[in-house]
Amino acid sequence: MVTILQNGAQELRKKAEEVPVEEIRSARIQKVLADMRVALESQDDGVALAAPQIGVSLRIFIVSKAALLAPEKLTERQKEKEWKSVKRELGYLTFINPVLSRCSREKALLDEGCLSVRPLYGKVKRSKKAAVTAYDENGRKVARGASGLLAQIFQHETDHLDGVLFIDRATNLRELPTARVGS
Ligand code: ZN
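^ thats the input. predicted complex w/ zinc ion below
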């Protein structure tokens, strides 16, 4: 069991540090990644998580590959199986020392929540498209462009690494007992 920190915890407000690239394959960093997967799997509605959310002030976030499925497909699979096992089966994308780039000027006002700011939801203006360059769990350089949910996740998660929470940017904040998608 890995605890996900809630708003108010100091670790969520720190600027996280870069991971030395030569340490990515070390037992220490691999343990952080394993803990992040456990924490994310424990949340039925979670699709992404940043290391500061488990109290580790390093520039790392992971995204469930379930976030890449089309929303219709997601619901279908959720009906078939337990969400947790769907996430475990699909696996995760890992972004270490991510740099956000090519954020489109075109923005959309999107519903957003956060596993560390429960049970609040709000509307956040995010670029419709974004790209990230980073290192994966094996220390290989990766670049990925995204639109839709994944682009939103890139922006939400890189904010976490700078100590920014979505509530800093959100309008129309409200409590929602039945959570939708959180990260
Ligand atoms: Zn979050």
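The longest helix spans residues 27-41.
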